[in-house]
Specification:
Elements: E1 14-18, H1 23-34, E2 38-43, H2 46-60, E3 65-68, H3 74-88, E4 93-96, H4 111-121, H5 123-139, E5 142-147, H6 160-180, E6 185-192, H7 198-203, H8 207-216, H9 229-236, E7 247-250
Parallel strand pairs: 1-2, 1-4, 2-3, 4-5, 5-6, 6-7
Domain Ketoreductase: 13-194
Family: Belongs to the short-chain dehydrogenases/reductases (SDR) family.
InterPro entries: KR_dom, NAD(P)-bd_dom_sf, Sc_DH/Rdtase_CS, SDR_fam
Length: 255
């Protein structure tokens, strides 16, 4: 269920979301649009992203700006951030959501796989921040929300490169919070638990595995992409104006 909370300072804000066309990102795009924000999002899933723009515009009267970009291409990422600012004004809120949790066994990982995995899951977060920080410094304020994951906290196997990247996101968050705080820029992270996106259901959800995971949660309900919207809006808004360098775990109490 999409949150019904309202944050007036997000009305008219220029928001840039990476990976905003599908899964959690699509819910974030819609959630910020419902607040009245001017939303631009980066994704490579063109069909899904265009359909999302149509749906959000029909529901809110505000059409998000879709920027078809491969985040592994840093020059293209910088160009996309510039386009977002040209269309909507300097970015007030950056949400680094894009990620890909491909499974891999230790023996199968090549240098090329590792580098590509990090180029999706960690490197773009820094360079997206780098792209928007000058305007945030000039404005004397800004909110950056980085998506990490509880996966690196639970000692699970099968995706070591991904969990390494997600742990790195927390280090990036804390390091940049210290550096950017004097300019009024807040940097926080959200660590989702097992959010049942379409991709998760298609690739990895089994009845036995899901039931076992729900047993570990304090709240015995499935988590959906919409459940990430409220926490992200809170960290993006002035309601959390003195919150920075924090990682907000949203996992129904499984960690």
């Amino acid at each position: 269920m999409m949150t019904d909370a309202n944050y007036p300072d997000l009305n008219g804000a220029s928001v840039l979301i990476t990976g905003g066309g599908t899964g959690i990102g699509a819910s974030l795009t819609e959630g910020f649009a419902r607040q009245g924000a001017k939303v631009a999002f980066i994704d490579i899933a063109e069909d899904e992203s265009h359909a999302l723009c149509d749906r959000v515009e029909a529901g809110t009267g505000r059409r998000p700006l879709f920027l078809a970009t491969d985040l592994r291409d840093i020059a293209a990422l910088r160009a996309a951030a510039e386009k977002a600012a040209e269309k909507h004004g300097p970015v007030n809120v950056l949400v680094n959501n894009a990620a890909r949790d491909d499974r891999h066994r230790v023996e199968e990982v090549t240098q090329e796989f590792w580098d590509n995995n990090q180029a999706i899951n960690l490197r773009p977060q820094f360079f997206a921040i780098q792209a928007v920080v000058p305007a945030m410094k000039q404005a004397g304020q800004g909110s950056i929300v980085n998506f990490t994951s509880t996966s690196y906290m639970i000692n699970g196997g099968g995706f070591a490169s991904y969990t390494a990247a997600k742990a790195g996101v927390v280090g990036l968050t804390k390091g940049l919070a210290g550096e950017l705080g004097p300019f009024g820029i807040r940097v926080n992270a959200i660590a989702p638990g097992w959010v049942l996106t379409e991709r998760q259901r298609r690739l990895w959800v089994t009845e036995k595995g899901l039931n076992a995971h729900l047993d570990r949660q304090c709240l015995k309900e499935e988590m959906h992409p919409d459940d990430m919207v409220g926490p992200c809006l809170f960290l993006a808004s002035s309601a959390s104006r003195m919150v920075t360098a924090q990682t907000l775990v949203v996992d129904a109490g499984s960690v």
